């Protein structure tokens, strides 16, 4: 069997399993939190053809944008930002929304509150709430200017309001008994955006100490996304990894990392795998990185997802799945969150690591091509006819 045939076989197995679980009414439940952002999806104007709307040549790449900004040193520059769309965002709403579109029963707690009453839903998040079983606002959302380029994106975040998200705030608004009930019924407990929310470590510790000891003995996974840790100090990253290790003693932890995040965590952990990158193909490199990180961090599962695919390692071994990469996405903001949602969905319905990687890549791949989260039919169709890179 060729690598292309093997990849297709994995994707079809995943599609068949998802259809069977859906037909049996056995889709997962999830408790997701705790951030929330309003995302402005932006193209940067390079040169205007006219002053009419989108009639311009965009600055297509991050190096082009960096050069334009650098050229203003000692002078000044006026760079136009064209807002293509305003959407609900934040790692947790995007991950939870992706899972909800697939049919998971999602309970959400987070910073999706109205500016005049943080316990009432901000109207921008109503489409998100429609995908969830329940939504409990606890604070106002932050704001992100998401500058999208063909080779990546720059997320310019304004996070003052989401610093209100703390373990004490969650308990005050939601109630500890309700949190325990929601967690007890969840196959997946997802906590995202450690980087932007100063209260996340306290939330991890609160769940570990006040919630997890009271849960029934049923399988569940604790899914964590850090968000880009570039601005956080090495000792803060090391401390956070230590907290996750203690949580893994009670609930198995899945840590999801993009390529840059995995490089930073590897460096803090003292791993040299990325110093030896010339010895590996990309797939082999990130598969080895996931394996080494998992062992060093003492977690149940580590996932590394560059744009070209994804790798994961757990106690059963490690795998790489080549994703359906596209160089011309309609929307890239939220692609990693959709991958996380898809991977967690796959694991929660009992798929193996390879099949779950296929689901994560397919959810993300469909999302960036369609600029909308896939529903179950779109996901199954995408898996059955998985495209190559384009």
Describe, in plain words, how this protein is organized in 3D.
The protein is an alpha/beta fold. The protein has a single domain (3-41, 87-384), classed as Ribokinase (UDP-N-acetylmuramoyl-L-alanine:D-glutamate ligase). 40% of the residues lie in helices and 24% in strands. It has helices spanning 3-23, 62-70, 91-101, 126-129, 167-174, 176-184, 200-211, 234-248, 259-269, 282-297, 335-348, 353-370, 376-384, and strands spanning 29-33, 37-48, 56-58, 81-89, 105-110, 113-114, 117-121, 134-137, 142-149, 152-158, 188-192, 221-225, 253-257, 301-304, 309-314, 317-322. The strands form 3 sheets. Strands 8-5-1-11-12-13-14-15-16 form a 9-stranded mixed sheet, sandwiched between helices. Helix 8 links the parallel strand 12 and strand 13 (253-257). The mean pLDDT is 95.
What share of the residues does DSSP label as strand, in percent? 15-25%
Number of strands: 16
Which CATH-level-2 architecture?
A: 3-Layer(aba) Sandwich
Number of domains: 1
| Biggest β-sheet: strands ordered side by side in the sheet | 8-5-1-11-12-13-14-15-16
Distance between the termini: 23 Å
Number of helices: 13
Mean model confidence by pLDDT = 95
CATH class membership: Alpha Beta
Derived from helix and strand composition plus strand pairing, the structural class reads: alpha/beta
Low-confidence stretches are: none
The topology string of helices and strands comes to HEEEHEHEEEHEEEHHEHEHEHHEEEHHH
Strand count, sense and closure of the main sheet?
A: 9 strands, mixed
């Amino acid at each position: 069997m060729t690598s292309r045939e093997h990849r297709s076989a994995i994707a079809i197995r995943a599609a068949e399993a998802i259809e069977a679980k859906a037909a049996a009414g056995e889709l997962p439940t999830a408790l997701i939190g705790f951030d929330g952002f309003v995302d402005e999806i932006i193209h940067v104007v390079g040169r205007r053809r006219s002053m009419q709307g989108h009639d311009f040549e965009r600055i297509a790449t991050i190096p082009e944008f960096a050069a334009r900004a650098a050229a203003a040193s000692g002078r000044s520059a006026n760079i136009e930002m064209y807002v293509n769309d305003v959407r609900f965002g934040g790692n947790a709403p995007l991950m939870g929304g992706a899972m909800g579109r697939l049919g998971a029963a999602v309970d959400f707690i987070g910073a999706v509150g109205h500016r005049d009453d943080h316990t009432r839903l901000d109207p921008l998040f109503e489409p998100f709430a429609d995908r969830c079983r329940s939504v409990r606002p606890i604070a106002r959302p932050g704001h992100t200017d998401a500058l999208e380029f063909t080779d990546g994106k720059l997320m310019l975040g304004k996070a003052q309001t989401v610093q209100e998200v703390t373990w004490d705030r969650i308990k005050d608004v939601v109630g500890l008994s309700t949190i325990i009930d929601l967690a007890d019924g969840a196959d997946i407990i997802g906590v995202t955006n450690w980087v932007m929310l100063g209260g996340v470590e306290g939330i991890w510790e609160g769940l570990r100490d006040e919630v997890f000891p009271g849960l029934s003995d049923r399988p569940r996974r604790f899914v964590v996304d850090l968000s880009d840790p570039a601005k956080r100090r090495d000792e803060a990253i090391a401390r956070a990894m230590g907290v996750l290790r203690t949580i893994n003693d009670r609930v198995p932890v899945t840590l999801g990392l993009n390529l840059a995040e995995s490089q930073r965590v590897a460096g803090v952990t003292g791993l040299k795998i990325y110093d030896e990158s010339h010895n590996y193909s990309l797939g082999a490199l990130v598969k080895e990185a996931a394996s080494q990180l998992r062992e060093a961090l003492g977690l149940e599962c580590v996932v590394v997802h560059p744009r070209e695919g994804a790798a994961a390692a757990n106690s059963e071994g490690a795998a790489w799945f080549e994703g359906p990469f596209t160089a011309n996405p309609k929307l890239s903001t939220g692609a990693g969150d959709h991958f996380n949602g898809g991977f967690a969905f796959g694991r929660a319905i009992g798929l193996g690591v390879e099949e779950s990687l296929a689901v994560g890549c397919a959810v993300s791949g469909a999302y960036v091509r369609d600029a909308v989260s896939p529903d179950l039919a779109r996901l199954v169709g995408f898996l059955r006819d998985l495209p190559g890179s384009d």
